[in-house]
Specification:
- With about 90 residues, the chain is mainly α.
- Helix content is about 90%, strand content about 0%.
- The two termini are about 25 Å apart.
Amino acid sequence: MGLMDHIKEGLEKADEKLGTVVDGGKAEVDIGKENSNISDATRDIGRKMVELFDSGKTIDDEDVMALYKKIVDSRAKIEELKKQQEEYKKKL
């Protein structure tokens, strides 16, 4: 194998590892977004409850549960992304 073949092979390996690192970084950003979604939904639940109490009503379970579902969905997405990150780390 000639020098150019070695260089080409090295560049291909480097490119593959760089892609893996980028994918791992993207997963980290996506986890941050899902954590932000959880914070937003938690705040919205609190706001909705205060609005209900201020208007003299009791808790409307349907509205609160719809907001809670967003939290549950984001938690599931975070777990999925963490598994992806582990797979990326194994490739490095």
